[in-house]
Amino acid sequence: MTRKNQILKAAAQLFKERGYSAVTMRDLAAAMDMKAASLYNHISGKQEILATLILEVAHEFTAGMDAVEMDDKSAFAKAEQLILLHIKIALEYTNALAVLNTDWMHLEGAAYQEYILLRKTYELDFKKILQSGISAGEFKNISVETMLFNLLSTLRSIYLWIPKKSTTEVADLKKELPQILLKGISS
C-alpha cells in the first residue's frame, strides 16, 4: 500500500469517528506517527483527502449502476442488484462510505459539483428502474420518490451495521435485505 493510500485509509477512519470538520492535519499526522509537514509530501490537504474518498465511492456506485442498466433483467432483478451493490460497497468502503454520507457537504469547487452530478444521476437512474417496474406491473403503482426514499434511507445506513456483524450475518443480509425491501413495493 502506498503512503498516500495509508494516509487516505487513516483519514477515512478519523473522519468517520470524529467528522471531517473536527479532524486536523495534525490529528492525521499523529495517527500516522509522522510529522504534519510530511503529510504534504503525499497530499495537498484535507480537501484533497475528502474529495478522493468521496469521489472514489461515488464512482463505484456509478460503475455499479452502469453495469445494472446494461443488464436486460427485470426491474425487480435490477433493484435487487442495486441493493447488493450497496451492501458490497458498504463492505469494501465502510469508512469512506461513512464519510460520503456524513461529510459530502464539505466538498468544494469541482469535486462538489462532480459529486452532486454523480449522486443526481444515480438517483435518476434508480428512479427509472423503479418506474419501469411499475410500468411492467412488477412494482405497485405508488410514488417513485417514496420508493426511492425508502430504499436509499435503509441502504445509506448499512455501513453502520456491517462492522458489528459476523460473516454469517452479512451473508444473511445479502440474501434477505433485497427480499425485505422489495416485498413492500412488489405487486
UniProtKB/TrEMBL annotation:
Coiled-coil intervals: none
The keyword Flavoprotein is annotated on this UniProt entry: no
One MF term in the entry's GO annotations: DNA binding
UniProt xrefs under SUPFAM superfamilies: Homeodomain-like (SSF46689), Tetracyclin repressor-like, C-terminal domain (SSF48498)
Superkingdom assignment: Bacteria
Residue intervals of the HTH tetR-type domain: 1-61
Keywords, comma-separated and alphabetical: DNA-binding
The protein's name in its UniProt record: TetR family transcriptional regulator
Species this chain originates from: Nonlabens arenilitoris
One Pfam family here: TetR_C_24
InterPro entries membership: Homeodomain-like_sf, HTH-type_Tx_Regulator, HTH_TetR, KstR2_TetR_C, Tet_transcr_reg_TetR-rel_C_sf
DNA-binding region: 24-43
